[in-house]
């Protein structure tokens, strides 16, 4: 671990704070996203931000094994995104094509 | 010392790009436009932070792992975005009211399921 006043420590603290704020902002979209697709996109971004957070934590803590965790997490997150997209693809279609937000809300709230 | 400066610079830059991606996710008007922010800015931010890690440790093993992670990210992010975009379109998302090009509209006018037709 580098000395406490090192420029890397300051930068990684800044990066950790910014990344946590970003995850919180993406969580807002995950919670209020009007459609299931919005939630999947938000979840995809959050998993990406977690990979970035793990890499930053690896620099901050001086622990290289966090990088392996980040790689494994990226693999699993990709599988999860693909599975969710397939699930959305196979879920029952709405009759009116592109425009029916109200119906989308009632379908996705369960 | 030089490596430390590059690491700090890449960390700050990468985290700011991640923040831009999250901000776009919150503020942009519809699903496909949000996907644009999440995929491009997010990939760039994560890639910059991983490169920062390679510069910080400056070891062969770490650099190889970072390269593997970045190439994996560059391979999977477009695939995932394509899958989500396709699924989102066919599940009937509401497009932004200013969107005026929708080339899929004529091919699947009633939001038909693509896997039933082919």
Describe the structure.
The complex is a heterodimer of chains A (110) and B (118). Chain A has a single domain (7-105), classed as Helix Hairpins (Orthogonal Bundle). By secondary structure, chain A is an all-alpha fold. The longest helix of chain A is centred in the first third of the chain and has 26 residues, at 7-32. Chain A has 4 helices and no strands. Chain A is elongated. Chain A has helices at 7-32, 36-61, 65-90, 101-108. In chain A, helix 1 (7-32) runs antiparallel to helix 2 (36-61) and helix 2 (36-61) runs antiparallel to helix 3 (65-90). The N and C termini of chain A lie far apart (47 Å). Chain B has 118 residues and is an all-alpha fold. Chain B has one domain (2-117). Helix content of chain B is 75%, strand content 0%. Chain B is built from 4 helices and no strands. The longest helix of chain B has 31 residues, at 60-90. The radius of gyration of chain B is 19 Å and the shape is elongated. The relative contact order of chain B is 0.12. The mean pLDDT of chain B is 85. The chains are: A mainly alpha (110), B mainly alpha (118). At the A-B interface, helix 1, helix 2 and helix 3 of A face helix 1, helix 2 and helix 3 of B.
Q: How would you concisely characterize the structure shown here?
A:
Chain A is mainly α and 110 residues long. Chain A contains four helices and no strands.
Sum up the structure in keywords.
heterodimer; A: 110 residues; mainly alpha; Helix Hairpins; 4 helices; 78% helix; disordered C terminus; B: 118 residues
Compute the number of structural domains of chain B. 1
> Element order, helices and strands of chain B?
HHHH
Beta-strand percentage of chain B?
Answer: under 5%
State the low-pLDDT regions of chain B, or none.
none
Which descriptor suits the 3D outline of chain A?
Answer: elongated
- Give the structural class of chain B: mainly alpha
Average pLDDT score of chain A: 82
What about the largest sheet of chain A?
none
Biggest chain-to-chain interface with counts: A-B, 62 and 63 residues
Strand content of chain A: under 5%
What is the structural class of chain A? mainly alpha
Tell me the overall shape of chain B: elongated
What is the terminal-to-terminal distance of chain B? 59 Å
């Amino acid at each position: 671990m580098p000395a406490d006043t090192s420029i890397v420590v300051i930068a990684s603290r800044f990066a950790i704070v910014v990344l946590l704020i970003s995850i919180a902002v993406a969580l807002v979209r995950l919670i209020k996203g009007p459609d299931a697709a919005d939630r999947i996109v938000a979840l995809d971004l959050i998993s990406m931000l977690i990979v970035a957070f793990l890499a930053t934590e690896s620099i901050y803590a001086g622990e290289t094994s966090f990088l392996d965790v980040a790689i494994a997490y990226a693999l699993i997150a990709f599988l999860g995104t693909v599975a969710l997209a397939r699930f959305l693809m196979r879920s029952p279609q709405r009759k009116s094509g592109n425009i029916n937000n109200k119906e989308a809300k009632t379908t996705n709230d369960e | 010392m030089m490596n430390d400066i590059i690491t700090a610079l890449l960390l700050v830059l990468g985290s700011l790009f991640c923040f831009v991606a999250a901000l776009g996710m919150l503020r942009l008007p519809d699903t496909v436009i949000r996907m644009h922010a999440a995929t491009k800015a997010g990939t760039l931010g994560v890639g910059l932070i991983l490169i920062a890690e390679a510069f910080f440790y400056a070891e062969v093993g770490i650099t190889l792992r970072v390269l593997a992670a970045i190439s994996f990210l560059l391979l999977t992010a477009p695939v995932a975005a394509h899958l989500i975009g396709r699924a989102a379109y066919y599940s009937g998302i509401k497009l932004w009211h200013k969107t005026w090009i929708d080339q899929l509209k004529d091919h699947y006018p009633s939001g038909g399921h693509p896997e039933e037709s082919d």
